[in-house]
Design goal:
This protein has 427 residues and is mainly beta. The chain has four helices and 24 strands.
Length: 427
Amino acid sequence: MINNFTKYIAAFLIFIILSFTSYLFPEENNPEQTDREKASPEQIEIKRGDSIYHIPKDLYYYLINRPEEMMKYLQRMEYYRQAEEELNSIIVFVAELPADNRNNIYAPIFMTKSDKIFGTITDFSFKWVGYKTTLDFKQKGFPWKNMTLSETIIGSFLYASGTNIGFNRGKLEEESRFYTNYFSEILTLKIKLPFYTSAAFALDSRQYFFVERETSENFTMPLNHYNIFPRIDLGIGYVKEDGIDQLTSGIELFSWAGYGIRNRWEEWGEPGDMQTGEKARTFLIYSSKLTAGLLFRKNHNLVLRAHYKGGTDNDFLSQPRFGGTIDNADIDAVHGFTLDQFRVKKFGLANLRYGFNIIERLRFNLFLDYARIFSPDTQNIFGSGYGFRIIAWGGLPIWLTHGMGKIITPEKKAVDHVFMIMTAAGW
């Protein structure tokens, strides 16, 4: 009965998306239009130095005879633009600070990109997060106009993969007996289809190698190995995100499934407490995520995200995980908990965010989260939070967030608090 109910819900969601996609995103509107192409005829273009501004006509005629007010208005626009504009390179510092004895998390991040490198059709991007580096090469319109071919190379060393988690006497916890490292190459071919649908096939080939750290004499190390992970993606709908506040509008359902095959995998661990071996040599992971955003009154934004993720025969390397109080990041956040605090077999998650500008330089956000762990043990988890985004002088953005989380079942626990601070600079 539950399976049938799930099918009905999925069919209903797909029907809603198909019904409203054409209304929300007419075919004649190209999502990749430039800002100048989308400029309203009710605006007047002003050049000041190397900068171009678009000002509503009514406001322009009001300011044209008030040079001092005009100058102040353009200066405010420039401050905000420095934080909002699309930058080629950016440095980010983010920190999660739990109020209890959990470890603080610090993450310096550097990102850069360059379109059509060396005069080719290839776009390049580079990201460095702690000990993890990612290079991405993307060719749009290749091999055919409606296709995109991507190659992603990842090197992850000494905790950087976020998978250095294991089991100790049956309890999931950080693995301190060895380091987990990997090198990965991912090839993805994506095709755009009519009615804002898309499909993609990806092949992830990954080499794992483990470095002994602190082990007992009888400890059996995990085997160095490589795995192949073919994956299929399906998407329908269109979601647009603008600026540093990620103002989200539209609706999209995105699902994927992949099947992993390891060339070898045997039991490892302490005698009497050995961990999964041959059973996890092959594994399945699947995911489905719904995103819906409503933008109104210029900067008021209501965003809903719902995510279900699970699999079979997953161990500490491939288990789905969630948690985190970091804003503006592509993670499964539950405010009040730290990054990837929960490692499970199957989970469902819903996030609600509402934000608006108090003044031009100050934005307020409210967060509400609910997560349900379906396996291995059922748990219900609530998260909530509030935060501010400040544009400092010179256009420097600063995010401050206070997250509060609580595990409700199987037993109620005290409220957890996590504070997040993040800032970024770009050029």
